[in-house]
Every structure is written in structure tokens, then in C-alpha cells.
Amino acid sequence: MRSLIRSRRSEPKALSLALALALGTPFPVVAEEATATAVDDQAREKFSEGNLAYDLGEFDRALKAFSEAYRIKPLPAFLFNIAQCHRQLNNPSRASFFYRRYLSLSQGEPANADVVRELVAEMDAKARVQEEQRRERERFARDRELQKAREQAALAEARANEAKLAANPSAAPEKNGASEALAMQVPDASVKTEAGASKPWTRRWYVWAGAGAVALLAGGAVWVATAPNPRDTTLGTVGR
Questions:
Q1: What is the DSSP string of the chain?
Q2: Would you say residue 183 has pLDDT above 80?
């Protein structure tokens, strides 16, 4: 937070520095002198345009104006202004690049060098976060494309199988017929059980067999009881 506050406080000074350099005003940070030529007038005009756009928060326009001013008159102070625009536009890697170029191309160490170094560290950290986020988005996009490709391949395979079945309908029923024939040869125990359970008791063979046996026993007992000379059921003696 400290770096952001310091950077904002340093912005007017940096913009004034660029303007002073563009106008040819001597400044202790930069030793070069500018003459009042047409080139200076063009650079001054672009700087004023960029400064106004920056104050209005139109950072794209400000970036374009400061970049054109640097092309007209390549003063290092314009690079700082360009870096500030990139920072506001959330382009940390570009901002870090132009901050470094500003420090590198300035003759001697600028008065705001410490602030600029803090901004470089801050922009580098943000750039690393953005890069990781970009890679994560790419991985997610690749995984989604791979999943989509798998779904399309499965759908194509299903359609191909349907087309084969439509072209040769007898292929699938062969397997079904063999299964049905096997099922006919092997009776189903559950069907038998259900069929047997559903028969009435008068139609069951073991009921009639038991009834016949009872009838025979009853008939034998009646005959023994009514016979004229019933047999002796006791043991006889020898010679009787």
C-alpha cells in the first residue's frame, strides 16, 4: 500500500519532469538541453494531450500520446509516464519494462528512483500472478476441449454402431435367437415352482395316491371283520 501511495504522489512530479524536459527547461535529474524547435513543439503538444487524458482517467489515450511524444523526442521521463499508464491499465509486465527502461536510460539516478524500484517489484509480483492465472485458464481450456473431444468421439461411435445395425439388422438378432434357444432347452425352475403352486390340490398326484392307500386299508379291515371263519391270530401247537 505504501508503494501505491508513494507512486501516486510521485506522478505529478514525473509528469512535470517530462514536460520540463520537453520544453527544454534545465532539471537537475537530466543534463541534456532542448532547443525551442518544431520537434519540441510537437513533443510538447503530445505531452499536454497525454497529461490531460491521464488526469481524466483515459489511460489508453494517455499511453498513445506519451508514446508519440517519446517517438518525437526520446526523453527518458516520457518512459516513466508510459509505465504509469500501463500500471493503470493493469499491464504489470509492460509497466515493469518501462520503469526499468526509465531507470536505465536516465543520466544519473532519478530523484524518484526509490519509488520506481518499489513499483518495479510490485509490478513483477502482479505479473507473476497474472502469468499463473493465464496458465490455469489455458489448462482449464485444454481439459474442456479434451472432454469435448471425448464426448464427440463417443457420440460418433454410437452413431456408427447404429448405422451398422441399420445396414445389417440380422446381426443383432442372431445373438438374441441363440439365447432364446438356450432358454427353451433349460426349463426355468422358478416357472415350475410357480406353476406347481398354482395347481389346485385336487389335481395333485400325491393327494390321490394317499387317498387310494387309505381306501385299501379300510377295505381290508372290513373284510377281516365280516369273514365267516376268521383266522386264528394266535400261535398253534404241534400236532393239533
A1: -HHHHHHHHHHHHHHHHHHHHHHT--BTTB-----SSHHHHHHHHHHHHHHHHHHTT-HHHHHHHHHHHHHHS--HHHHHHHHHHHHHTT-HHHHHHHHHHHHHHSSS--TTHHHHHHHHHHHHHHHHHHHHHHHHHHHHHHHHHHHHHHHHHHHHHHHHHHHHHHH-TTHHHHHHHHHHHHHHHS--HHHHHHHHHHS-GGG-HHHHHHHHHHHHHHHHHHHHHH-SSPPP-SPP-TT-
A2: no
Residue with cell 526509465: 102
Q: What mean pLDDT do residues 16-40 have?
A: 52
Question: How much is the average pLDDT of 146-165?
Answer: 90
Q: What is the pTM of this model?
A: 0.51
CB atoms within 10 A of CB 105: 12
Lowest mean pLDDT: which of 100-114, 129-143, 209-223? Answer: 209-223
User: Whole-angstrom Cα distance, residue 99 to residue 115?
Assistant: 10
pLDDT tens for each residue of 30-49? 434 445 578 899 999 999 99
Question: In whole angstroms, what is the distance from residue 184 CA to residue 12 CA?
Answer: 97
Selected residue with higher pLDDT from 25 and 180? 180
